[in-house]
Amino acid sequence: MIEVQHVCKTFRQFRAVWDLTFRIGPGDIFGFVGPNGAGKTTTMRMMATLLDPDYGDITIDGISVLDEPETIRRLIGYMPDYVGVYEGVEIREYLEFFAAAYRIPVEKRKKLVDEIMEITDLSGVATKDVGTLSKGMRQRLCLAKTLVHDPKVLILDEPAAGLDPRARIELRLLLKELQKLGKTIIISSHILTELSDMCNSVGIIERGIMLKAGRIDDILAERSAGELSQQKLLLRVLGRPDDAVTILRGLPDVGGVEIDRGIITFNFMQPIESNPGLLRELLQRGVPVVSIAPATQNLEDIFLNVTKGIIA
Ligand SMILES: Nc1ncnc2c1ncn2[C@@H]1O[C@H](COP(=O)(O)OP(=O)(O)OP(=O)(O)O)[C@@H](O)[C@H]1O
Ligand SMILES: [Mg+2]
Question: Is position 301 within any domain?
Fold first, then answer.
């Protein structure tokens, strides 16, 4: 749905985004994660045709942002990281105003705005002054505004910033709802945990360079497939684990042995095929093994592995 190809953007001498290449599939919720100054907003602004790449191209639904920016603008809804709203206007009026700006015929406007307020859970506050809204409501209103022209793609820059846990859960449900309606969604944050339960794919960017991108399932599978020269394993034994720890520490290719709440974790510098040999070895030495299994990697581990926490 979205193809980013070798995109570069420089501000004077500063490389904000460098040779960025990744794709987002139709119907994906793509989490764009990186520390402050990583280049997320710059990339999203290029997707939204508000900024031209110096090099490379971005296509949405096969259409280039450079060749047909007007068409792209009809395809996308962009929610910037900072949004000001006018005061003295009611929510309904505000949304109807944007519907008019998008040339939605008068007779269709009311129904459309009703539907959008329903999806974004604003119906109950339709007559509230937009200047008096709480942060969470304001975020919802801004999202509602991006929905007015029924875009296929939503580009949301930090929509969860500043939301309380409940509002974040509501945002997640809302995004899932929009995904069901067939929309492709890209959402940025500098906090991975804010996104990990909302997205099915992710891109981790740092200092303008994409460190890792793809479907979360694929990334997790790839990392636990045993191609790694080092794997993290969990060992459970009957009774006290101390003897097992001593034995483990004496084995070749074993390192970082620790006990955490009765479970032994350690690094094994061998591919997964060597695990049966390790198990045999432990049993022969009299370790009462209950189970031995690879520690499952989560998104957080991957994030820590691929980023170095550098802030530009
Ligand atoms: N108009 C501009 N002129 C000069 N430098 C800019 C401009 N816009 C962005 N930059 C620089 O490009 C880099 C990337 O900025 P960007 O806003 O894309 O980061 P970000 O990942 O969105 O960060 P944040 O999490 O803080 O929103 C930063 O170092 C920023 O200072
Ligand atoms: Mg930003």
Answer: no
pLDDT in tens, 122-160: 999 999 998 888 888 888 899 999 999 999 999 999 988
User: Which ligand 1 atom minimizes the distance to the CA of 17?
Assistant: 14
Domain boundary among 162, 196, 216: 216
Instruction: Examine the fold and report which residue of 216, 238, 255 is the final residue of a domain before the chain moves on.
Output: 216
Q: Which residues line ligand 1 (CB under 6 A)?
A: 11, 14, 16, 34, 36-42, 81, 190, 312
From CA 38, how far away is CA 303, in angstroms rounded? 14
107-112's contacts with Cβ under 8 Å and 24+ in sequence apart are 112/148
- From the CA of 16, the nearest ligand is 1
- Spatial strand order of the sheet with 55-60 comes to 14-24, 2-11, 55-60, 63-64
Is the same domain home to 139 and 231? no
* Cα(48) to centroid(ligand 1), Å: 16
**Ligand 1 geometric centre to CA of 57 (Å):** 19
Statement to judge: residues 262 and 132 lie in one domain: no
Number of domains in the chain: 2
Q: Is residue 303 part of a domain?
A: no
Distance (Å) from CA 66 to ligand 2 centroid: 22
Domain that holds residue 98: 2-216
Cα 246 to Cα 28: distance, rounded to the nearest angstrom: 48
Q: Which residues pair with 5 in a beta bridge?
A: 57
Read off the pLDDT of residues 28-80 as tens digits, 9 standing for 90 and up.
999 999 888 999 999 999 999 999 999 999 999 999 999 999 999 999 999 99
* 46 shares its domain with 179: yes
